[in-house]
Design brief:
Elements lengths: L2 H20 L11 E2 L1 H4 L1 E8 L1 H22 L6 E6 L2 E5 L7 H10 L3 E6 L2 E6 L1 H25 L6 E5 L3 E7 L4 H9 L4 E11 L2 H7 L8 E9 L5 E10 L4 E2 L3 E8 L5 E7 L3 H10 L6 E5 L2 E4 L10 E4 L5 H13 L6 E9 L1 H30 L1 H23 L3 E2 L1 H30 L4 H33 L3 H31 L12
Parallel strand pairs: 1-19
Antiparallel strand pairs: 2-8, 2-18, 3-4, 4-6, 5-6, 7-8, 9-11, 9-12, 9-15, 10-11, 13-14, 14-17, 15-16
Helix pairs in contact: 1-11, 1-14, 3-4, 3-5, 10-11, 10-12, 11-12, 11-14, 12-13, 12-14, 13-14
Length: 521
């Protein structure tokens, strides 16, 4: 045996060992190839991100920024009014020019177009900026959901955007679907807003008690009414200023703590940028109530006794689990906009077991029939193809284990298709060898010419399939990507086994030095 054949044997054995080890279950890794939602069971959700809320928030922040800049430059603070999600109007006092406010808009609100109108200056969010903000909102929602799901310990979640404003969420093996869905849906938009007046039993009562000149500047939000023991006994309403000087974006961390009477509360710390804003908010409103608003509901409204800078506590009627979940979503970041559930499916693990059993049974039966057909038709060369096929399967499964790819039902279909294409590769080579033999070539010449001339055809067919698989992987979601991954890996493995392993087996059986006169094909 020459050195060339020897190092090929060593290389093939090394490949076999490396990929076989990857698919053997161990104590630390009992599931080398992770199963997808359709095999393991879990939750499938399709949610729409309400991107208009992000546009509205951007407009509200622009209004506050215009007022703040006007005040800092000793200009009369204009009256602002939002016309729609992307437009607001600023009205100045009689006799006050608009040139300075236009300059502020150009310098400090670059995302808005400024134009003059009969009712004042109009600020409109630029279309390109609005489109970018919508895209970023969806991406931020994906990242926030991903952080929350990972904090729960869900393995191999699939969280991908779909279309302009949708997100597909697949969570395999979830034990408590209801809790996970609640955590995902929680927007966790935390806001700190000053309370105007006192809480009332109805929203109308709050509105009637407000001075007429204040009503346009506040939102009336619900909150829980508690008795002396801290138990929720009803609902009351608060008038809170529309301006949001400090929000969840300024939050650095959140942890569950014990309150004064042992009830769970959420302690929070602020970022270096948020601490001065919170200090200014509490310092200038000592003696007034500060509403802690979560998802447009007042959680608590404590009185500000002194200036607070970098930390605080959120109190409410929380259970330990509720406080823990809320701290989790606050730590992972608030969603930039609320979510609307468009589709929801819970897949039971029994479906996965049935699918695996049926898929494995179909694969084994098909594989055995394929082996029998190859051996009967190609005789000794058929055994060569079977050995290459087995190594192909080991490489495919091992690569999936190393890349931590998720096996799905379409992935199983991709494996079966890959094995079929691997056989097709051997068939092309074997038929080419037969043609060379019919032309009177010697056995060694027929083998050499068969592999050489079939190579271009096989690469051409594999290349077109690889391009299709790449498009499926790039633009597909969930199961489609699983199919593409198995197909791509299998195509590469089939080329390796057909032109390296099969060729090596022929070289061992039909040595050039033996000058073989016939071949079992």
């Amino acid at each position: 045996m020459n050195r060339t054949v020897l190092w090929k044997i060593v290389l093939i054995l090394a490949v076999l060992v490396v990929f076989t080890v990857a698919i053997i279950p161990t104590k630390d890794n009992p599931e080398p190839i992770r199963r997808g939602l359709d095999l393991k069971g879990g939750i499938h959700l399709v949610m729409r991100v309400n991107v208009n809320e992000a546009l509205r928030l951007e407009t509200d922040q622009a209004m506050n920024s215009l007022k703040s800049q006007a005040s800092s430059q000793n200009l009369p603070v204009p009256t602002t009014r939002r016309l729609d999600d992307t437009t607001f109007v600023a009205t100045t006092a009689a006799g006050v020019g608009t040139a300075d406010y236009e300059r502020i808009g150009h310098d400090f609100l670059p995302a808005f177009e400024v134009s003059r109108a009969a009712d004042g200056l109009r600020f409109h969010l630029k279309p390109q900026t609005a489109a970018t903000l919508q895209h970023d909102t969806v991406q931020q929602a994906v990242e926030a959901i991903d952080r929350r799901v990972n904090a729960l310990g869900v393995t191999e979640p699939i969280i991908v955007p779909e279309g302009e404003d949708r997100i597909v969420i697949q969570l395999p093996g979830v034990d408590d679907p209801a809790r996970v869905k609640d955590i995902i849906r929680t927007t966790a938009q935390l806001q700190f807003r000053i309370v105007e007046g006192e809480a009332q039993a109805t929203a109308q009562a709050v509105y009637d008690a407000l001075p007429a000149n204040v009503r346009a500047d506040v939102d009336i939000l619900p909150g829980s009414r508690e008795d002396e023991l801290g138990r929720v006994v009803g609902t009351e309403f608060y008038a809170v200023h529309k301006e949001v000087p400090v929000s969840g974006r300024d939050l650095k961390n959140a942890r569950v703590q014990k309150g004064q009477v042992g009830a769970p509360v959420i302690g929070f710390t602020l970022t270096p940028e948020g601490a001065p804003k919170f200090g200014n908010l509490t310092g200038t409103h000592v003696g007034r109530k500060l509403a802690i608003v979560l998802d447009n509901k007042v959680v608590s409204a404590p009185v500000i006794h002194s200036q607070i800078t970098d930390s605080g506590v959120i109190e409410g009627s929380f259970t330990t689990q509720q406080a823990s979940d809320l701290a989790l979503v606050l730590r992972s970041g608030s969603l930039p906009a609320s979510l609307t559930t468009l589709e929801e499916r819970t897949v039971g693990p029994s479906l996965g077991r049935d699918s695996i059993r049926q898929g494995v049974t179909a694969s084994v039966i098909g594989f055995l029939i394929l082996i029998a057909a190859i051996i009967v038709y190609y005789r000794g060369a058929g055994i060569n193809a079977v050995l290459a096929l087995l190594l192909n399967l080991v490489i495919l499964l091992g690569m999936m284990a190393y890349f931590k790819a998720t096996l799905t039902l379409p992935g199983i279909a991709g494996i079966i298709l890959t094995l079929g294409m691997a056989v097709d590769t051997n068939v092309l080579v074997f038929e080419r060898i037969r043609e060379e033999l019919r032309e009177g070539k010697t056995v060694r010449a027929a083998i050499d010419q068969g592999f050489s001339r079939a190579f271009a055809t096989i690469i051409d067919t594999h290349l077109t399939t690889i391009i299709s698989a790449l498009f499926l992987f790039q633009f597909g979601t969930g199961p489609i990507k699983g199919f593409a991954v198995t197909l791509l890996i299998g195509l590469g493995a089939s080329v390796f086994t057909a032109f390296f392993v099969s060729r090596m087996i022929f070289d061992i059986v039909y040595k050039p030095t033996d000058r073989p006169r016939e071949i079992s094909i």
